[in-house]
Specification:
The protein is α/β, with parallel strands linked by helices. InterPro entries: Hexapep (IPR001451), Transf_Hexapept/Carb_Anhydrase (IPR050484), Trimer_LpxA-like_sf (IPR011004).
Length: 198
């Protein structure tokens, strides 16, 4: 659902996909090839939220801020399932792990990886290429070229997903029996551990 608020109407590039069960409200600008999953809430009611090209905000994420603040999720930022971005800016090609919380005025640098279920305190500044985990979140090492290559390939799947959704996602009635032609989908992306073994 796309909602206007106090005269602000979200701007969504036609190549992006916002799931009908997501809520995008007010002063929100969504660039090219972005994906917003079901249950996500992007609330630009108190300030501007910009998703640059290629950003994905996955299922059940929240993006919001205190009044008068504005935030940017830079190009190819990848926000995992259930994460909360509250008044924080995300750098280019970063990965925010599932159920992570990033608080107000935090800055996540380019190509950072923030592990699942981490808590990044308000006003924390994370330099680029940092691997961050924990509660409170701490930098544990630098992100290697191999790790960022793995992350980038995963984000590219999400950048293809909007076109796939526009082409083939349809509301349907469920089948009542498993058809003989139903197959498992092919594996197109490895876990980091499997990726590093190659």
């Amino acid at each position: 659902m796309i909602y206007s608020f106090k005269g602000y109407i979200p701007v969504v590039h036609e190549s992006s996909f916002v799931h009908p069960l997501a809520a995008v409200t007010g002063n929100v600008i969504i660039g090219k090839h972005c994906y917003v999953g079901p249950g996500a809430a992007i609330r630009g009611d108190w300030g501007q939220i910009i998703l640059e090209d290629g950003v994905n905000v996955q299922e059940n994420c929240t993006v919001h801020m205190f009044p008068g603040k504005s935030i940017v999720l830079k190009e190819s930022a990848h926000v995992g399932h259930g994460a909360i971005i509250h008044g924080a800016n995300l750098g280019k090609n970063c990965l925010i792990g599932m159920n992570t919380v990033i608080m107000d005025d935090a800055e996540i640098g380019d190509e950072c990886i923030v592990g699942a279920m981490s808590f990044v305190k308000a006003e924390t500044k994370i330099p680029g290429r940092s691997l961050v985990v924990g509660n409170p979140a701490k930098i544990i090492k630098q992100v290697s070229d191999e790790m960022i290559d793995w992350k980038t390939k995963g984000t590219q799947l999400y950048q293809q997903l909007p076109a796939d959704c526009h082409e083939s996602l349809n509301e349907v009635a469920p089948l009542r029996a498993i058809p003989d032609t139903m197959k498992m989908q092919e594996g197109v992306y490895d876990t980091l551990r499997d990726f590093m073994k190659k």
